[in-house]
Each structure stands twice: as structure tokens, then as C-alpha cells.
## 1
Amino acid sequence: MVTATLGRFKQPSVIPCFGMAFGFTLTYLSLVVLIPLGALVLRSAGLGLEDFWRLATDPRTLAALKLTFLAALIAATINLVFGLLLAWVLVRYEFPGRRIIDAVIDLPFALPTAVAGIALTALYAPNGWVGSLVAPLGWKIAYTPIGIVVALTFVCLPFVVRTVEPVLRDLDRETEEAAATLGASRFATFTRVILPALLPALLTGYALALARAIGEYGSVIFIAGNIPYVSEIAPLLIVIRLEEFNYEAATAVAAVMLIISFTMLLIVNLIQAWSRRRFGHGS
Amino acid sequence: MDISVRELRKTFDRYPALHDVSLDIQSGELIALLGPSGSGKTTLLRLIAGLEFPTSGSIFYGTEDASGKSVRDRQVGFVFQHYALFKHMTVADNIGFGLKVRDRSKRPSSAEIRRRASDLLDLVQLPGLEDRYPSQLSGGQRQRVALARALAIEPRVLLLDEPFGALDAKVRKELRRWLRELHERTGHTTIFVTHDQEEALELSDRVVVMSQGRIEQVGTPDEIYDTPATPFVFSFIGDSSEIPISVSGGEAHVGNRSIGVFAEGLPDGPARLFVRPHDLDLVSDDPQTIAAVVTAVRRNSGSRFVEAEIDGCRSKVEIELPADDMRVFEGRIALKPKRWKIFPDAKRPNSQSVVGKGPYKHESEPKPPDYSQMVS
């Protein structure tokens, strides 16, 4: 019954080359993503469960993981709100310098993250421009978890803006006018008509920003101060373990990060799929 | 609700879209704003709705000056050409939207909103579709839902912007009849924009013909078709042929030949004679006729159309005859209009010289464009 199964699997379609395209996709994904990650899992599996658990639940590791994911979540959430605002301004208003602002948004992508980290550190350090302003209030930004959030917010800025912008641009102005003729205030129009239409795009941007923030290394290590248990992120801990030639501990941390990241992204994607079903009718 | 528009002017970036338009609409009337694209009809509708604000002039709802009021406060039902339904809401939620966004004190209970939505769906003849999404409906159904949504807020006036423009011909015809019935039942003052003259003439109580930001004529469909007030209306509504003539001594001439048409009260000089294809007669024994040469004959459903070129000028006329008229149409024919209208040539007051200079006086002062005289 090989032909029957194959027949079901390979449905006739007007889009040609399913076999080739699918094969290429699998090979590419394997080479670039799955094999390195598989090797990581294999290496940490060689540890044995007990060793792995000991290394993964080490207090310093736990503190680093908690900091990494918490800071990433906060930074992605900040960008969700302000990214939407930026996209809104760029799409809806005509003002001098709009093109320049548009170009500036992509800069965090183009800049080497180390450069961003050093620049931010110089600004937010207690003797920097911003740091010296808040220092009299007893606040410290650089060399604390707040500094990490600042750096992560900077590097993930473009994601939400760039995913929401095209959707917002294509949004039908007539539906907003319709809402207004029906007596809806601007606020009600925004929350009931515009936001639901943007939700899938917002979640995509959020997931991308989150993923980027979790893996960010270059910019954070400069501003964080890297104090163990306080401002040491998990990617840095991996590097430290590698420098100690403690490969087992490094892979253990990496494996835990992998599992948590994958779970988080899966959840975001599921919410996104749900919102597309719920709000994306006809779009 | 009476609607009254006073000297409304609207300019977009210094480009004028409406020139001092005034219009009175009585309560319960069904009015069509008819015109080619760019005539300002949609702008006028959007101004009445409050989706645009006038550069000058005012709009009255009854006796209340609504000019400065926002669209939220005007309580109008507006139907868009492309439906503008909320895609992420069910049909019932779409219809109930206007009630749900009301202030808490004026908002009906959710059960009441749901019941109203069902009632309105019955009214627009789509019972039982409450839980569908707009994407699951056909174009005609979506437009009905859009209308139900507009009616849900108990509008003071119903405004429709090319409501059937995006639908195919058959559905369009069906919805046209249905809208007429609905209007008779609910009695809302209704203004709709269309570029389809058939739709305007068939559906409305009165038609407002617009061109280049001005109102050309306001009247019942009969008045618009039978007694067009301006050359634009005559050529825009229905089929017509234009024959350049010259008037002298109260008589119309083509070339230097009298065509047996009187133009009393019209000043001497060039003029334009408009006639409908079915108002042209073929005659044989009359010296005072329009002489023409047949260029084509074609058959279209119940009629036979003869195309002919007038002697002495390049303009063509069309004659509509019954399909069973089996005469052979070839070569030279003589035509006589049964009903016609002559407008003095406002555009080219002195350029026409078909008759030469001789005994004809040419008025050099420009004539007002609406100056016209029905001679029949």
C-alpha cells in the first residue's frame, strides 16, 4: 500500500516541485538548525541524569537563567507597547524627518551589539549622561539587572515595529470610519477594531523580540557588570564554563536554555495561531 | 429628518471638490446623488455624514446646525462601497457594535443587543446568520449586514456610498428592488451615491445630478430624463445625440438649411440641439429636415439603431427604430426630431460659422450657462 500512502501524502497540486522543495527545506533545516542542536542534546545526554540535574540546578545557574528569561520577557513587553506606538506614528502621520526615523529604527540590527553595549554603558554608568542624572536619586542603571533590560530593549526594538508596520498600513481606513459613524470613540475604535486586527502581527513581533533577547550576549555583558547571582546572564555563564574547560556544565546550561526557549516560543506561536483563528477572519 | 445643505464648499489642498452647493432634502425622501467620478458626489455625502468637514457653508439636520458636530454625534447610518465590516467579529457582533460602544447609561443589555441583531437580520432577509463571520458571506450578503449594522443605531439619516458598486449586475438589480422596499417599510431619509444612472432613476424619489463639484439639476427621475436643465444632464442621462446648429430669426439651421425646428426666444448665433435616439423620425416628403448619410445599422435586442453623419458637419446622430422596421437604410436620409432641446452655445460663442457672416448677429457677451429654453 505504498502507493496509497504516497498518494495521500503527495496530493496533486498546481504548485510544482513539492518533493524537491520539501526535501530541500528538510536538508537545510537539518544542516543549519537541527544537527547543531542535536549535538548539544547528545552531549548533555552523555552526562547522565543525576549529573545533569546537579549542574542545571546549581544556584548560580538558576540565578542566571532566571535573570535571562525575566529580563528578556520585560524587554520584549516594553517593545511590544512602544513598538506599536512607533509603527503607529510612522504609518499614520506625515511629518518632516519621517524617513530618517524610519531608518533609525533598523540601526540596532546593523550595529555590532558590542558597540551598542559600550555606548549604553557609557550613557548609563553612574558618571555617564543619563546615569549621572539618576544617581542623585539613588538609582543605578548600569551594572544592575535594569541595565540588562535597557540593553535588551535596545537590541530588540525593530522587531515589533517591522512586523506591525505593514499590517497597520494595509488596515482598511473605512472600517475605522464605520466604527466612528456607529458612535465609537477613538479609544473604542482602537481597542475593539484596530487592536484585534493587529494582534497576530504583534504576537509575531513579540516572539521574535523575545527570542532575540534570550540569546543576546554582546551588548549585555558590557552594561551588566556580570556579578554572579545578581547580573550574570546565562549565555555569559556558558562562556565562563567553557573558559574553565567545564564543557559538561556549559552544555547543561545550554540544554536548559534550549528547552525553556523552545517551550516559550511554542506557547507564543500557539497563542498566535489561536488569535489568527479568532481575529484573523478573512485576513 | 429634513436635511439641508447651505452653500457648502470643500477644497482638498486648494483643489476645489465642491463649489457652494445648496440642497434641501425632505424627511423620508430617497435621494440619489448621481454623477461621473470626480463630480463631488461622494464628497457631498461624506460632508453630510461628518466624515469630512466643509471649508465653508453649513449642514442642517432639521433645524439643528450639525456643521461642527463630529460623525460620532451625528447619528448617521453610513454604508460603504466595500462593506467595511469588522472581519474579526461575527455578523451579530458587527450589527450590535453601535449599541455596545454606547455609554453605559444608554447601552441596552447584551441579551437585548443580541435580540435586536436578530430582528435586523430578519429585516435584511438574512435570518440565522448571527454566528457567521463576514468572510463566510457573499458580497450581497455582506452589504445587507452592513446595512443592518447602520440601521441598528436608529440613524436619523441613512447614507450609502455606492452601495452596490462592488456587486455583480444581477445581485445589484435584486438589491436595488430590495432597498426600495426596505425604504418604504422603514421610512428613513436616505441619500445614496451612484454613478449608475439606471440605479438612480429607478430607485430614487429625486435625483441630484452633479458634475465638477456643482449641482446640475435636482428633480424627479421623470423631470431629469424628460426635461434636462443643462447640456451636461442631457448628454449624461440616457442616450442622446448632439447636433451643432445655428439660430437665426427664431429658427434652427444646420448648415444654411432650415431644419423646421423653432427656437423662439433664443438669441441668434451658434447653439446645440440635443435629441434622444427614439425622438428622431425618418421622413421623406419634407423640405425642412436634417440631412444625413447612413454610416451603420445595428440591432440591439428589441431595437434597430441607425447611425448617420449630418451633412455639413462631422457630428453623428443615432436613430432608434423598432426592430421590425424592415426598410433599407442606405445613403441619404432625412431626419426630423419629435422632441428636442436647444441650448445656446456657451463654450464657443463666436467660433461657429456654418452660416457665414451675413445677416447673423453674434452676441459677444458670454451667456449664463443655465440659460436654456425648451422648444417643443
## 2
Amino acid sequence: MEKEAGPDAAATRLDDPWYDAPPPGWGEPDGAAGFAPDARTGPEMVRHPHSAADVYVEVQRSAAFREVRRRYRRFVVPASAAFLLWYLAYVVAATTAPGLMARPVVGALNVAMLAGLGQFLTTFVLTWAYVRHARLHRDRAALELRWDTQEMTRGIGR
Amino acid sequence: MSGDHQTLALLLFSVFIAVTLGITTWVGRNRQGSAEEFYAGGRLFSPMENGFAIAGDYMSAASFLGISGLIALFGYDGMLYSVGFLVAWLVVLLLVAELVRNCGRFTLADVVAARMAERPVRTAVGTSSVTVSVLYLVAQMVGAGSLVALLLGGTSDTARSWTVVGVGALMVIYVSFGGMRATTWIQIVKAVLLMAGAAVLTVLVLAHFHGDVNALLHTAAERSGHGRDFLSPGLRYGESWTARFDFISLGLALVLGTAGLPHILSRFYTVPTARAARRSVVWSIGLIGSFYLMTIVLGFGAAALVGSADVRASNASGNTAVPLLALVLGGGEGSTGGTVLFAVVAAVAFATILAVVAGITLASSASVAHDLYATFRRPGAEQRSEVAVARVAAVGVGVVAIALGLLAQDLNVAFLVGLAFAVAASANLPALLYSLFWRSFTTRGAVWAVYGGLVPAVLLVLLSPVVSGGPASLFPGVDFQLFPLENPGLVSIPAGFLAGWIGTVTSSGPPDEARHAETEVRSLTGAGAA
């Protein structure tokens, strides 16, 4: 489902979940290998928070994090509402409106059969859409925030 | 069923048991007993492996035999289950999997307790997790007993009892010696077997009708004795408003409960990152979706080729529909093909049960050791001893499950699976979603959400027709039935969400902003993930 990347295939290869994110300190002696400071889009590193809790509050307030959260919520909230409503409508219709559901459409297929298969189809399509949205709009920014946050909390007593 | 079936099926059972015990031994050598290893299998499974394991954890014998059987008997109304079991995965994918992977370490309680007062929240979530697991486990154990007896023809009570004991002993061995790693590989093997078995039968059914689905459906409708009604809803759930609301209640529990099942959530900790967890769910949605599509073909195939009347004559709840279908597809009773296919189906069903019970046993031993025991142990005890406790807990859970399974084996416990989903949806899901998405959620809210869902769910079932007041009840002699529905979800799920909300708004202190920030940042970025 994730292989149709096309033009950005090379970019997403880097983001392959299976290969990413070794915990900090693994194979990077100076702790910052591969991350040029000016490539950061995360919270600015000027302030020096006193505790890990401060770091998390600071990251939570940063524009980069708010953008990741906004993109996540703007996809999952409407999508969840839509598929739950569609499922509930299906179950309620199947139990309370058998007449409507029994209406023949083509051959042995009736409205109920098509609605049931439609549930399967929408599940597969929404899965594909979610994965694509996350990969294209969220993963890279989230990964950068992860490194930044871990960098900031390193060495701070919790 | 002739002796050939039994011999071959028993041979295949033994091969599967030997293979799984081999896996357990192979996995168990040279591994030190760290918590990471025992609960999460080292966290280095690939998304594909985990996707198969999730599918193996989730697809029970009840889906393979039960849903196909319901379709063979009631046509369309059986299909409603397939849809519910699949759509539930969207909740897991969109709202739960990645965030849980990022925030927790081993159990559901890890996530909820992260921003709260540890002790009361861990106790509450641990209690409801163990409740869900034990309900589910007992249903599987009783099912295993009657299934093996059914498939092997030996309906004697001793055969059933020994099956329950044997299945219980095996799951305890897998879990306490092999931990998550052995459980995962057993689930992967089982998922492959189940998918392959279902695919072979599906292809044979479709080939029998030369790929003409229309002909399959028409024949099924004809031989069901219901005509076209067989292809539309209403045969099982359409007779009264109680039945309708009961199904809506069950549908709600199925779709919301999956995301609160402890043994499913613990699977996300076996992969290294949240994105790997997401990809595992994509694999499992692909597998589970195609599996439930195949159960639909098998169910209608059984109605068309075996006939609903013969299915009902063999087993009133339809559980033998797929084995009977295999017999017909292989060439009928007495033929070699029929014998082989029948034995294969029996072995796949057996493998299915073993893999599912192992997953649940592991999850409940984790809840006991990591949530309940760890909350009350003296501070400073090592993590190492927690794993030892978890191994003992697996034995304890096994003993309880065997005992309850033996006590309940003459009872109709089909409602237990629906109840397990209802408790998961009413107690675990509200606490989980609130703590991931609601800034003002408090400790009191979390505790209230869990008990506010758990207690009504269990109470309503005690007051429902499954316990008393009807001929099919557990105690047909007495009548204290007050609640009309068999599944409490319609009431208890809103109750859980409502209780969590009330508990939160009536909390005295303000919510902990800093720990909410930590949970939110960690859940969405993976910073500091275990």
C-alpha cells in the first residue's frame, strides 16, 4: 500500500519506519551525526530549559509541533467521524430497514450486499489515504521534532 | 465422522504442537529474561511480521468457523459480524496504534498512567485489562473444548475436559518459557496457516461455480430454504426491536472494543517505531480484510453446497459449516480429498485457538505483573523480578482459565466474546482516548472512566437474559433479568465516556499541564519512545 510513492520515493526511503530512529547515542559518537544545525525546523535551541518537563512544554508550544498536531488532527478527526457514522448508518439500516436493504440492484446483489462490500472498500481506501497522508505530510516533521526534543532533553535530569 | 479424519487431524494437531514447542525452545535459549524481551519480544519485529502476528492474534476460531457458520445459517446477518470486525481496525489505525507505540512501554496502563497519579490509574486499567482478557480467554477455552470434540467426533465429556486442560497447559508453556517472541512466531505461523486454509477453500468454492459469484449467491439462497431473504438482513436480528438493538449494541462494541483489547495493544510494542506500528496495522488490515471476505464466500458456499438444513443438523450454531464444506469440496464423505481437507480445516482451527489463547495469556500476565503487582511491590525491587512474576502470573492465569473453562463447558458462553469487546470499549477505550486527546483529563477522570465502563458492563450482563430469565440462560431456573439486551455496549460505552467526563470536570486540582505536554509531544513525535 505504500509503494506507489512515485516522485518522492527517494525521499521517503530515508523515512522508512523500519530503518529509522535508532535511539540517540547509537553509532553517533558526537550525538548529532547527520543533522546540520541549520536544517532544523523544530523549536529554537537558544533557551536553556531546566528540566525535561520544560522541554516538552516548550516543544508543545513551538510552531513546528503545532503544525504536526494540526495536520494529524485535521485528518483523523473528520475521517474517524465519517467512517464511524457510515458504519453506524450501515448497522442501523441493516437492522431497522430490511426493506430498503433487500432492494435488488444487479443479479443476486442487493443494496445490503453492496453496502457491506462498500464497508470493506471504504476501510481499504481510508487505510491507504491515512498512510499516504501521514507519510507525505507528517512523518518528516515528526521525526525532526523527535530528534530535536531528544537532543534538548539529553543530559537534563528528569 | 470416520476414523480416518480423526487420525489425520490428530496427526496434524501433533505436528503443530511439536512445531510450536520447537519455536518456544528455540526462542527460549540464550535469552536473558529482561522485561523488554518477555513483554515486547525485543521490539525488533518487522512490520510485516507484526502484521501477520496481529492478524494471528485477532482472527479466532470463532471468526473462522463461527462467522462462516452464521452466514451458512442466517445468510446476510452473519456478514454483519465480518464488517464490524474489520471496520474496527480503522479506529486502531487512525487513533490508537502509533500514539500507543510512542507513549507506552508494555501495556495499556503505561499510556493512561503516564500523565496521572500512577497507582490508582494503573490499578484501574490493570483490573479492566485482566477482566477483558479472562472473559475472552474463557470463551476461547470452552470453544476449544467443544470444537475439538465436534471435529473429532468424540463428544464425550472427558475428551472435552482434556482438551481444555491441554490447551491451557500449552498456552502457559508458550508464554512462560517463550514470552512475546515465541507467542509472536506462533501467531505468525497460525496466520499463514489460517490464510492459506481459507484461501484454498475459497478458491475451491469459486471454482465449483466457475467463478460466478451470482450463481453462488443464487444457489445459496435456494438451498437455504429462505429464498431471496437469505441475501438481505433480518433473518437473525430482524424479528424484534430487542434483537435489533442487541445487534446495534454488539456492532458498537465490536467496532470500538478492538482498540481497547490489551492483547492487541501490546503487539504494537514489538516493533521499533510508531511508523512500523502503522505499517503493521496496514498489513493486518490487508490480511484481516481479505480473511473476512473469504469467510463470506465460505459461509455462502456452505449454504450452497452443504445446505443450511444439513449444517444446522450437524451443529445448531453452525460451527461445523466450514468442516462440512471442506468434506464436500474434497469429494465427499469417505473420499481421500474430503478426509484430507477436513483434517486440514480441523488442524487450522486448532492452531487458531492455540495462537489466540497464547496472545491473551501473555497480555494478562503483563497486566498482572507490570500493572497490578508493580504498583504494590516495594520500591527498589528489580525489573528482573517483574518478569519472574509475569511468568508465574501466566501460570496463574492459565489455572484460572482452565478452571473456569471446565466449570463453564456445559454453558452457552458465546456471549463472553461480545462481553469482552463491550468491556474493552466501555472501560479501556474512553480512558485511552481521553488521555491521548483531552488536555484537561485528570486522574479522577481516568479512574472513573475505567470503573464507570467496567461496572455497568458487567452488572448489565448479570441482569440480562444471558444469565437468567430465559430457557437459554446460564441459570434458567431463576429470573432476575432487568436489562433486555444480551450485549451491554449500547449503554455501558456511553457510560464509560460520560463517567470519564464527569470525573474530570469535578476534579479539584487543575490538570498537570507539563505532563500533558510530555504525553502529547511524545505521542505525536516519538521522542523518548521505549
## 3
Amino acid sequence: MDQIKGIAYQIAGDFGLAWGKFFSQVIIFILVYTILKKYAFGPIMGMLEQRRQRIADGEAKLEKIGRDAAEARQTSQAILDKAEADAARLVKEADDAAKAIQERRQQDAVASANTIIAKAREAAQLEQEQLMSQLKREFGRMVSDATSRVTGKVLNTDDQTRINQETSAQVSA
Amino acid sequence: MLPSFLQPTSFSPLLANVHSYASELFTESSNLGFLTNSLLVAAVVVGIVLWFAAKATKNMTLIPHKAQNFFEFIVEFLYGQVEGIVGAKIAPRVFPLLATIFIYILVSNWFGLLPGIGTIGWGEGTGFMSVKEVHDPLLRPPTADLNMTFGLSVSMFLVWLYITIREVGVWGFVVHTFGAKGGLKGVMGAMVAVVFLFVGVIEVFSIVFRPVTLSFRLFGNVLAGENVLHTMSGMGGFLGSILAPLPFYFMELLVGLLQAIVFTLLSAVYIQLSTTHDDHGHEEAHH
């Protein structure tokens, strides 16, 4: 045992081992360990955990946002479908109403045109008749004038009336 | 015995080069004898680590600034590695210790590669501000001091013991170490029990020597690297002293990282082996 102890002491001496130096190194190590554990590793691990938590929360929020977006898409799609159906119905109704209005307007226009045409025809007829009577009168006067000049006779009212009537009858024929 | 320039040196011989009265304050037998050049560098390394940790954890935000981002990367990476080995249950308890060990060893290893560490000091003078060989370096890498590596491994061993007892209990640890596996009964069971008892004794020796293996592995690698760099620096005149050690600097960068990983992961494996409740083997990888 003493021999082993002697060898150990010799090795320690050869390599410069000494209690004072040994403990001073241990104390330095314990010092750095204590400070790093309390002021470095603790806060850093806390920060890493906080970041991990933040990422996990972010992922959860992302999933929720994804779900909400899917729901919103479904809802908006439903609203769009309904709006599309309403729009189609409104367009159809408007189309029908327009067609009805167009038809009614067309009928009104046709009726107005017919009225205008009838009135025009009446006016033309009246004007024709007026011109005809004026023509007859003028023609009767010219015939009476020609007759009186040819015959040298002054025509009385009866003659003039008779000549006018005959002339009118011939013009009308 | 190691050459004197490869051992941690108290400030006594250093100050002896300056003034004898100052030297007496730091003799091995005095109260300040524990102050060594490697302890001074260890204090500087601790200062750097704490400065960066303070910078990284100051004004922390969810969108990290550069220092915070880098520190978070290291912490997250290490936590993943530790959790992968010791399991999710134990990881929060052992992570701060293992992460501190990793960062402290890594920074110490790389700090020791800085020009001037181990090469500035006193020795046989060859001219103005020039020595043939540095006998008393002003600064030494902390991981090239067995006091530091042994201190780390003993601290790790005590934490391992505490976690193991807390997790499986004293009796659970005894059963885990010496108990027969396989569930055999009768004569075969008794024979197997004797074998496992013997294996348990070997296991106890293995456990006791863990601090030694851990500390000497780290110490030896860093010391050897430092030695190689010093040797290479002394070759081939001025230009050779610059070019010759250059490839070894890259190698030592890797070795420094590798040794930090090895120490940390082995510690994690030791914890995992003694805290698992299953029945598989509990052999470990000694290097």
C-alpha cells in the first residue's frame, strides 16, 4: 500500500499535481459553471423555449387561419352561388319585362302609325276633294266664260249653274 | 519526469528572474503558491467565456442579434447531443455542466495555440529579448496543466456519482454494477452470479480510474500538441520557425475541438450507462 502511495506521489510530483493548484483550478471551474448556468444557459434555454412556443403558437394560428379561410371560401362560394342565381333570375325578369315593354311599345307605335296614316289619308282626301271642287268651279267658270264668248250671249245664273253642273259631272266622270 | 517547461509553473521562479523578494511571495510553500501561469491563463479564458456569454445574453430578443444567435447555436447543438445520449429526463440536469466543460475545454485548448502562450518567458539568453529555450513560460495553456484536467474530471466524477445515486439509489447502483444479468436460475445462475460479481469488481476499478483516464487523455493530447509546436518552431531558422509549425497549428485546432468533444461525450456516456434501468451491458470505451 505504501508502495502504491509512493508511486502515486511520484506521478503527482512528476506531473506537477499539487492540492493548492488542483483546488484553485476546481474553484475556477465551479465559478464559471455556476455563472454560466445561472446567467447564460438558463436565459438562453428560456429564450429557445419561448421561441419554440412562439413557433408552435404560430403554427396553431396558421392552421386556424387555414380553417377559417376554408370556411370563408365556402361561405363566399355559397353567397356567390346565391347571388348568381338571384342575378340570373333578375336578368330573366328584366328580360321578360323588357320584352313586354318592347311589345307594348311596338303595338303603340303601330297604332300611332296607323292613326297618323289614317289622318294623313283623311287630310289627303279632304285636300283632294277641295282641289276637285275648286277645279270644278274653275273649270265651270272657264266653260261658262268660253260659252258666253262663243255664243255672244250673256249667261244668266241658271245657265251658269247648269253648265257648271254638267261640267262637274263630266270632270267627275 | 516532465521537463520543467512542460509543467505548470508558479510565479516564484518567474519573479525570481525579476526580483528575489517578489519571488518569495509565490514559493510552493507560501499561501500564493497555487498561483501558476496556467491558472492565470485559465482566469483569462474564464474572463473571455463570461464576457462572451454576457454579450450574448444581453438584451436578448426573439429575433436574435449576432452574439445571441451564435451562443444559441452552440447551446442548442450541445443540448441536442447531450439529450441524444443521456435521454430527455436527465438532460436538463446535466446539460449545464457538460456544456460548461465543453466550452471551457475548447476555449482553453484554442487559447493555448495563440502565439506567445508557452513561448514568452525566461530562459538562456541569446540576445536582446531572445532566449534559446523558454524554461519558465509566462503563460501556459490551462489544459496542459494536469491540475486543471484532473480538477475537471474529478468534478465530473462527483456529479456523475450524485446523479447516479439520485437516479437509481445506492442499492440500485450496487445491483446495476454487481448483479447477475440474464435471469438464470439454479447452478448456472450461481455461476453466472460469480462471474458478474467479478465483472462488477472490474467495473468498480474502471469507474475509479475514469477521472484518471479522462484527465490524462486531455492533458496528454494538449501537452503533446504544445510540445510539437515548440519543436517545430525551433526548426529551420526564422522562416522555418514560421512555416514548419503551420500545418500543426491546423492539426491542433482539430485536436483541441476533438478533445473537448471526447471529454464531454464520454462524460455523457458515463452518466447514461449508470442511469439507464435496462439490462444491457455497461461496458465503456476507454481510450
